[in-house]
Structures are given as C-alpha cells and as structure tokens.
Design goal:
Order of helices and strands: EEEEHHHEEEEE
Strand order of the largest sheet: 8-7-6-5-9
Number of helices: 3
CATH topology of one domain: Cysteine Rich Protein
Radius of gyration: 35 Å
InterPro entries: LIM-SH3_domain_protein, Nebulin_repeat, SH3-like_dom_sf, SH3_domain, Znf_LIM
Pfam families: LIM, Nebulin, SH3_9
CATH superfamily of one domain: Cysteine Rich Protein
Protein name: Nebulette
GO molecular function: actin filament binding; metal ion binding
Keywords: LIM domain, Metal-binding, Repeat, SH3 domain, Zinc
Strand content: 15-25%
CATH architecture of one domain: Ribbon
Length: about 240
C-alpha cells in the first residue's frame, strides 16, 4: 500500500516518493519550511523531523537550566549583586552631577529612601543645634527655612476658616497661590510638617527653599511643611 505524503496527505507513488526524516514526501512537497525552496537528499537539513534549507535552518542559542536549589541561590545572589552595583553607580553618577534618565521602580524607591534619610538628618541637626543653645546665622539655610515656615504658619492661623475651596489668586500682596497634587503618601517627620496621601490636593502652597514647601492639605485642613518633590503643580 502506498503511504501518504507528510506534507499534503495525498498518496505518494514510488516514482515520485522521497523517503526522509522518517516520513514519505512528494518530490514537490519536500521543501524548506520557511522559504518553500524545493530540496533534495543532498541539500536539506532536518530539524524536529522537518526539512529546512541551509539559510533557514533553526539555530538554537539557549540552554535550558533546571531550577535546582543551587541555581536558585546563584540567581538570587546575582540579583543582589546587580542591585548593589546599581546603587553604587547611582551614587557615583549623582556625585558627578549626572542625571540618570531611567525612572524605574527601584530608582523611585531609592530616591524616596534617600529623601527620607536626608529629612531625618536635617531635623536631627536642627534639634541638636537648638538643644545646645546655638542660633544659626541669618544666612543659614535651616534658619531661613524655619523662619519662613513659622511666618506661614502664623498667616495660616490668621486665615483659618476663610478658604474652604481651592483658590488660584493670593489675597495677600505677593502673587499667585499655586495648587498642587500629591504624587506619593508622606508621613510627617516632625511637628512642623504635614502628612498627606497620594492624590491629596495641597492648597495655598508656597516654596520655602529648593526642597521644601509650605501648604495646606485640603482633605484634612492641616498646614505645614512638605517635601516639594512629593507633589506636582496643578495650575
């Protein structure tokens, strides 16, 4: 009985039969799986019991590795080493004044952690200076920041109850009061700071220095200092 063709399924007669790769083919059906070029017994290459020409023969460039406990341990160790190197490169690039373009979740987490450490250090230094009776000079950034914060807290107390809705123009001589929206959750680190949640609206916001602002959380009605890089302007 004549066998069927492995390609078209029709009967293959002896005069047109090509027996290869444990299958029977019509001469015209024995062609490359990719480019359809007709092959013969001299120029074909078999892969997974299918014929290919030399140009389209599949090239295996990967090796399957079993997830043994040792391989898992090595993989975890490699990931930890990569994270350590990433943090090191980030610190070095920051020291050179180079701004990294990628904003990965790991990058954001490192940035938030670094900011919280900087905030804690700042308040620690301030409390230490205040505890030993040292009064910073007028040109000291920490002194200027707290002077402006205290002034704004006094103004907020005077105006409390007068602004229940978001206003765009400042009633005081000075300019425009900007409205901001929180990008992340923030927990106050000191008595003069204010806590807020992601998505909260910050009204009556005014910059104090390069890294801090003073404003009122519309949801809670509380006013205080807040990190400027945790909010974005909505105006």
């Amino acid at each position: 009985m004549n066998p069927p063709c492995a390609r078209c399924g029709k009967i293959v007669y002896p005069t047109e039969k090509v027996s290869c790769l444990d299958k029977n083919w019509h001469k015209g059906c024995f062609h490359c799986e990719v480019c359809k070029m007709t092959l013969n017994m001299k120029n074909y290459k078999g892969y997974d019991k299918k014929p290919y020409c030399n140009a389209h023969y599949p090239k295996t460039s990967f090796t399957i590795v079993a997830d043994t406990p040792e391989n898992l341990r090595l993989r975890q160790q490699s990931e930890l080493q990569s994270q350590v190197k990433y943090k090191k490169d980030f610190e070095e690039s920051k020291g050179r004044g180079f701004s990294m373009v990628s904003d990965t979740p790991e990058m954001q987490r490192l940035r938030r952690t670094q900011e919280q450490i900087s905030n804690a250090k700042y308040h620690e230094d301030f409390e230490r200076a205040r505890g030993r009776g040292f009064t910073p000079g007028l040109d000291d950034p920490s002194m200027e920041r707290y002077q402006r914060a205290n002034q704004m807290m006094g103004e907020a107390g005077y105006n409390k109850g007068m602004h229940h809705q978001v206003t765009e123009m400042d009633r005081r001589p000075g300019g425009i009061i900007r409205v901001y929206r929180a990008l992340y959750d923030y927990a106050a680190q000191d008595h003069d700071e204010v806590s807020f949640r992601d998505g909260d609206v910050i009204i009556n916001a005014q910059p104090i220095d390069e890294g801090w602002m003073y404003g009122t959380v519309q949801r809670t009605g509380k006013s205080g200092m807040l990190p400027a890089n945790y909010v974005e302007c909505c105006n």
